[in-house]
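User: quick one, fold this
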Amino acid sequence: MSEIWDNIASLIENRDILISEHGYDEIAADGLTVREIVAGSAESIVLEEYPDYSKGPRVLTMIKDHDGNPIHAVWGIPRGSTSPAVLVTAYRPDPKRWSDGFKRRKK
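Assistant:
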């Protein structure tokens, strides 16, 4: 399991969450809601980790919407902080860019 994700998941569970402006824009553009992303986070699958990202550690996760369709969400924690969990972005992944059930980037 991912230590970064474990920390973020704990923050989400405690409702210590911030949604980035970019996150709100992308969520709205794909017809998603913050509520469904936060609710689905308990069932997240970690796809990629970015522990050395300049703004703080990040993880790319996948959840399923109420119809079973995939949603990718990038969560992070600000560099030098222990909270909050930041929803950086969330989107419906493009099947042309992802394989293996939307779990791997196509090369």
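User: anything notable?
Assistant: The longest helix spans residues 3-13.
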